Amino acid sequence: MSNSLPDLLIEPIVRAALAEDLGRAGDITSAAVIPANATAEGTIVARAAGIVAGTACARLAFHVLDPAVTFAAGRADGDAVKRGDVIARVSGNARAILAAERVALNFLGHLSGIATLTRRYADAIAATGTKARITCTRKTTPGLRALEKAAVAAGGGSNHRFGLDDAVLIKDNHIAIAGGVTAALERALAATGHMRSIEVEIDSLSALEEALKAGAGIVLLDNFPVADISAAVRANAGRATLEASGGVTLETVAAIAKTGVDYISAGALTHSAPSLDVALDIETK
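Structure (tokenized):
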């Protein structure tokens, strides 16, 4: 996928999830039932159609507990699967496989769910033949932002800023405290270098011209009705990049795209995506 992450960044998150699940004594059920030297083989399968994301998390969950466990991916992040498709095969120490199973599936299901929902939004926009792109927001699960944004990319979406430190986004509360759109933009322009992107959020058409005159390179149209988004696109006349946000749904995203905006941001991609149903099936001999 276009926004894959190195194991160095993923592994601490996976280790924390394993520690949460294993608790103080580890997998006491498997320790009681499964001989220490027992081996097993199994397949991770999709129980529903969707887009895969999170395979590295699943692989690391098994490898952290036992580096000798084999994880052979049958699908890569960004690949489409249908019900019954094999996402990966695992083999090795049975206790390690069972102890890692739930963490691996939790990551894989959650992130694949995000990729699947993102693809639905991206497809709805693509059908309009417009230039618009769907993008995520900072409405992510604490501690999982990098993984969830990678899943958005796997689903064909764009990533908005990753945090407060990589782009300036002047929102309504900044404007209220600073004393207006112009004052906020002037301070931001004076405080940042030429490599820093500056976006300003507006909630009315009347604020658009002020934002453009003050030097905004990106303007976020917050909770604008579709008719007002169209009017903003006409008034902007290509001067700034326009992003529409607020209450975006699968039912409304196509109409928003047809207005001519450049980006459409939806927090639902990460905060409301249902998990893709995936399972580990152990093969019996």
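The mean pLDDT is 96. The chain has two domains: 7-115+273-282, 124-271.
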